[in-house]
Amino acid sequence: MSESKGPLCLSGKGVTKTFGVGLKAVTAVDGVDFEFRRGELVSIVGESGSGKTTLAKMLLGLISVSKGEIFFQGQPRDISTARKKREYWKGIQAIFQDPFSSFNVFNKIDTVLLDCINMRGGRRLPRQKKYQMMEEACSFVNLKFAELTNKYPFELSGGQMQRLMIARIFLLKPKILLADEPTSMIDACSRATILDMLLNLRNETGMTIIFITHDIGLAYYISDSVYIMEHGKFVESGTADQVILHPKAEYTRRLISDVPKIFEPWDLTTV
Amino acid sequence: MGKTILEVKDLTTKYITRFHEDVYAVDHVSLKIEEGKSLGIAGESGCGKSTLALSLMGYYFPPLYYTSGEIILGGRNISGMDPDDVRKNVLGTEIAYIPQAAMNALNPTRRIIRFIEDVIRAHDPKMGRKEIFEMARDRFHELGLPPEVLDRHPVELSGGMKQRTVIAISTILKPKVLIADEPSSALDVTSQKMVIKMLKNLMEKEYIKGMIFITHELPLLYNVTDDIMVMYAGQIVENGTAKQMVFDPLHPYSKGLMGSIIVPEEGVRGHELTAIPGTPPNLKNPPAGCRFADRCKYVVPACRVHEIPMLCLGGDRCCRCGHSESTLREAYAHERK
Question: What is the extent of the structural domain holding A211?
């Protein structure tokens, strides 16, 4: 969304992650710079092994940054203590690839959602109000709360679980949502639903969504700007139209040619 | 018109649940594959695609049971055969199957060549080790896999490579039909392309004569297969050539599926994705009449009264909808405005 240069939400300078030491050291993310603005839907696209998920983990603060710095809302990010980390996670939340393992199996769905309300300072709200909020969140993702109460997450299908995850995000209202391949484990039909929900979520709450995927088609459909990642570096970035319709980097062209198309023939010779 | 290599007539198979309820996951399915052709099966998760794949092999083990119908493969009916007989004389040589998580099918403690030996020896115990190795090496070379792979353990290979290795292993005996059940959905787009290239290669070199490709990715099906069949709640709802099905779907369910296609091409951005609301019905007690009625936009009371028959529209095009072709086309045209 180039027209709305919103305030900076998350940015990084020379962010690097190196695993191992000495000769065996592997640089997974190699000095990347990025600027994500408020209300923007950004995609990070790359093959497996290009460092997308490592970058995501660093953004979430799940692993440390080897070199460089990440800025949260213009300030250098400080997650040195557990308390500060918790504070940071109020601003950034994630949806992961595997919906089946992203829930606590011992908690019922009511508890999952109730926890979110409590975390957002709704602990003292009357019970009825809490239920109303939960119902609202569920209807936002086209689930019926009445059918979910007293159920465990594993009783739902993959698509429903991923939607429940979005309902959680809707209640938590973080500044940034990091979606790490949220649609790669569910079928094409529920995928459309999930993508539309992410777009709705952005439009309704104005949060920044960082969407990580290997499918450039999804990135093109959903995002405002696209970063293409190859071997830990961003090889190309810009608005979605710019990057995908007029790609400059060789790697981007290859990624585009890898996706099966329906309006043009799919060239299988270039693998 | 080529020779028919696989013909399935009214195949019905069921699962028996713990509570002794019958679930008909494949309900009167008929299909036909001609030599050199490939057939795609599309549908949501939970609509019976994978069960159909398992049923087509004629190899049933609980909780899946055979009920009725025929599977005619190379002139003989394999549906009612003894499981042991099927395993020895049909699987591997006549029909091969690649499961979705094929990469997890390899025992991590054995080298790739051992799996190939297993497959070959099961059908021809006399073959020597060296002979097998040479045969495997040549085949791998022809399919574009480095022959070093044969001496590696599965953990040393990447996901895409493992998937291609499994395909090479399962087609080593030149089966007539290959059933690929979502062979690429756990891979990224680049490895997916390599897998597809290999499958096409197999078809071209005539190591396999026909292929059934199951996936929910429609752009992929369009590029891989000649014909597409759409499945819903255990039944076939529409079939036709790939081009017809993607650009001119008739059944409201196919229409919905095609509406969820996302490709990185101009004009895709901005057009709303039309997801189908709701989930497939529970097959324990399928709804009377049209099974799609609860989620259909064009539902009329008559849809729920009696079972809808498959209606042939000329050529190989068939559709299972209560509305006539012209009514549906009118409705779609009206919607476009």
Answer: 36-258
